[in-house]
From TrEMBL:
Superkingdom of this protein's organism: Bacteria
Pfam families in the record: Glycos_transf_2
Gene3D superfamilies: Spore Coat Polysaccharide Biosynthesis Protein SpsA, Chain A (3.90.550.10)
Organism of derivation: Kibdelosporangium persicum
Name of the featured protein: Glycosyltransferase involved in cell wall biosynthesis
Limits of the Glycosyltransferase 2-like domain: 5-128
Amino acid sequence: MTLLSIVVPVRNEESRLPGTLRGLTEALAGITRSAEIVVVDNASTDRSVDIVRAHQLGAIPIRLVHCAQLGKGAAVRAGVLQSDSPYVGFCDADLATDMAALEPTLTQLGAGVNVVVGSRAHPSSIVKARHSLVRQAGAWVFRQVANGFVPGVGDTQCGYKFFDRRTADAVFRPLRTFGFAFDVELLARAQRIGAVIFELPVCWRDVPGSTFHPVRDGYRSFSALARMRSVLAEPDHPAAVPEARPVTTPIAEVA
């Protein structure tokens, strides 16, 4: 049985993917071989899918899943719900969060923590950021608003979060925020069911080439926050979105 699934949402990441897959494989192989990498293609138009298929099968199996519903939240949700491991989480394709965080993450989950959140706000974190002043200001305002939904969590937006299976199913199935603000809804739902959330110090560096556009995606993220109270007030039945389509041909056979 696979102990851990790591979901990587991908949209036009052909330049990063070779390094991403190598980095994750090496990090996982040094901790546990009972793991898998689930790459979720979010309607890429470049060679991202071909690169995943051509990646040589190593110590850690790689699965490819297609998600036609656009949005980072939709892609992560699809990958999480396609897995059945006791522990599941996600990281960004740029590996901005150092994967040395995986070992303490598994330790915390094994000790009974329900959600492990990579936190750049933790006083022990090492953060190397190169964002513009405009983006930094926008991020500060976003954190203040997000704190109204997830009080006590210093960093809702770090792209590194892991869950036990029961909690993952409880927060991802009813998820209705499919853009970059989806983390806030996830954590709000986790707090609502009494999940134990642990903020983990991380080494994080800003990596050039982010798909987040400060104006376009910033506007959408704040709009999502404006709708979030009504979203969270809805019944917790699974959101009506298209399910992900797993690739049926094993990666090893098309390499």
